[in-house]
Amino acid sequence: MKITLITPAKKHSKNGNRTSALRWAKFLRELGHHVSVESLYTRVNTDLMIALHAWRSADSITSYRSQYPNGPLIVALGGTDINTYLKTNPVVTMRSMDLADILIGLHDLIKDVLPPRFHNKLHIIKQSASPLLTPRSPAKRFFDICVVGHLREEKDPFCASRALRHIRHESKLRIIHLGKAHSQNWANKATSEMVSNPRYIWKGEVAKWQVRREFIKTHLMVISSRQEGGANVVSEAIVAGVPIIASHIPGNIGILGSDYPGYFPVGNSRALATLLHRAESDPRFLELLGSRCHEIRPSIMPKTEADNWERVIKLATKK
Prior knowledge:
Radius of gyration: 20 Å
Shape: elongated
Structural class: alpha/beta
Number of strands: 12
Order of helices and strands: EHEEHEHHEEEHEHEHEHEHEHHH
Number of helices: 12
Distance between the termini: 15 Å
Number of domains: 2
CATH class of the largest domain: Alpha Beta
Largest sheet: 6 strands, parallel
Helix content: 40-55%
CATH architecture of the largest domain: 3-Layer(aba) Sandwich
């Protein structure tokens, strides 16, 4: 089958959308399909289209549906679809969702925010990751915490750095931040933060192998986002065996579970500081976070995600 996979992320982007699209394309090719990954649908002949983002890919979705009124169409909902555009641009967002035969959500709580008419279309496929090839060996000189995420408002990128200001100077805690600044202003803020807070180290945008290398050395990961649709990096950390401390938002809860012990209120750097201090000073707490992540691991392994994609492709082409 010829499949066109649309993602708004450009070809050389290292963001989560591009990562998702390329991983999905790999699964589909392994199932025997011919897959073309594009940023815009150009009315090429295709047997099925998968569009990542209802709002950002709206033009492609409309164009495909006008060319193939009965063609199978899958729309994967991005975090901004769920958390932003359903409120700020509901007409365009829900039109894309109406045109889709199947909607893909990336975490378990997405159904809670969708209008009821979309519930029967929704299928949850959690993002997967591959295990590390090298055993983890966290650093001993420092208690390193990694933050993996681009510098933009939705990520609250300096929350972990702010938390360090509430922790005693004798602590070995250090923040290693990997992620692209979305503007020069964000880059300037990160540079200033490193000057005023020497325990914060921003390394900018890095390749995937460098993120995985950091997972080998780090003690835990912080995801402080104000909103997420089911972040790649949470799955990557879980599969890598990295304990997680996360903001208490649906996008994180829908992956880690409602009773996960490592949540802090969004934007609350003092609460985050308390958890970081506990992780550094209480090995049992760090072990608890790790064991809870390990329990989740089977649900986000590559085979599980691949099997789920095979299932929804069959459903989409049955109509």
